[in-house]
Amino acid sequence: MRRTPPPPGPFRPGFWRSPLRGPWLTSVFGLVLLAGLPLIFVTGLLSYAAYNPGLGPLNDQTPDKGILGFYLFDWPTHPYWLYRLTQGVHVTLGVALVPVLLAKLWSVIPRLFAWPPVRSVAHGLERLSLLLLVGGAGLEFVTGILNIQLLYVFPGSFYTLHFYGAWVFIAALAVHVALKLGRMTRALRSRAPAAELRTGLAATRPEPPDPDHLVAAAPRPPSMTRRGAVGMVGAGSLLLLVVTAGQSIGGRLRASALLAPHGRDPGSGPDGFQINKTAAAVGITRAQLGPGWRLEVRGHGPSLILTRAQLLALPQHAAALPIACVEGWSTADQHWSGPRLTDLAALAGLPHSGSVLVESVQPPGPYSSVVLRGNQIHDHRALLALRVNGADLSIDHGFPARVIVPANPGVNNTKWVRRLTFRT
Known about the structure:
Layout: H1 23-50, H2 82-96, H3 98-112, H4 121-148, H5 158-190, H6 193-198, H7 226-249, E1 295-299, E2 301-306, H8 308-313, E3 317-321, E4 334-338, H9 341-347, E5 355-360, E6 369-373, H10 374-377, E7 383-385, E8 387-388, E9 391-392, E10 402-404, E11 417-423
């Protein structure tokens, strides 16, 4: 293959002619990604831990994780805004880094068409890690952005694809950093950033030839400075940050969250805050939630069957908690009220219960049921909420009753509850 001439098109050295490509610009983009991608990975793992997958298949949609679940721990309920913070950072940073990732891929794309494709075993392994790195990055960013928009057009479960894809990507990234860190450091030191970013168009020159052949063999005259390239990518990231961050920060910035389309105009009144799915969207009818609705509470001894009026007659407690979802959006603190889960556990004869199975009226499907840990049950702010902001829950917010637990992913705060089964 060394003696075979490269095929036409991008495999020919003269195909790539940008005078801006080179080790320095590639390393600048790489440095930003090196700071951001590990944080996205860690917050993604924390999001997975928050679903408490160790509690069983109802909570876990990533089977056979084996050793990849080594970091799992009992997700805490303090501070109550923990999941809002970690998932907000995960999604917002992921979206904001999209321009940097695309710029990095643009800067190294000649390497993807190197000829011959494989020169040795070591070179083949490096190429394989590069393929896994690029493919893993594409999978993670594409599936993550589609999930934000609730567009599940990919095969299989988002959680399974995203979980395993993340591990493939981070392993490939670790190999890539180990191979390229020295070159990146030398490239960054080869040019003074301040001087480079002051260089005008007339003085913009290609970098010296490099061993990775990123520098064009026959560059065309520059139409943009490196300052312009960095500024354009930075402006793109800043714009995405502005139109994304408000969905988790809240306040006046919420109006700028143009990439958070779910319930952007939830209306006014006590139930005027964001939701993902309405009762109609999951197949629930008003008849299922009418006067005939009952809550079944199971535990030690006979089951208890309670009407909503009987639940309202129990001691009522209040908690100010947000709803925070895996898509990155969250609400401000809402004021919920209802009986405590720990009080219902005591009624069921298991005051020290270790878990509870929460089942919804909605048809069977992902997250129509969930298991909560003992620490979640016994937090004094964990409620079977009957009212919010001084009014009865609306149907779309879970009437007649829903679970609300501090620091819990929104989808695990089950709506339209029909049964609680407390366990030791």
